[in-house]
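User: My collaborator sent over this chain with a note saying "see what the structure looks like." That's all I know about it. Can you take a look?
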Amino acid sequence: MENGIKEYFQELGNNPINPLEIKLGYELIQFIGLTKREYFAGLAMQSLIVSNPKWHTDAVARFSIKIADDLLKELDKPKND
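Assistant: Without extra context I'll predict from the sequence alone. Here is the result:
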């Protein structure tokens, strides 16, 4: 695999929710399935559709992704004990 693809999957939110290990030739690939970003956006989308049924789908999609990105940024911050 190219380094660009590996780097992409290491970016914030692109790690899988439930990693599945598969072997492709001699290389072990662990990033199969929904990413955290996709999962969080889907959850946000469900809530937005239920609470705002008259919103246009493109607005719901954009806002869901924004919510997912904001959540991932917050989760990436160090914990304050």
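A starting point for your reply to your collaborator: The longest strand covers residues 22-24.
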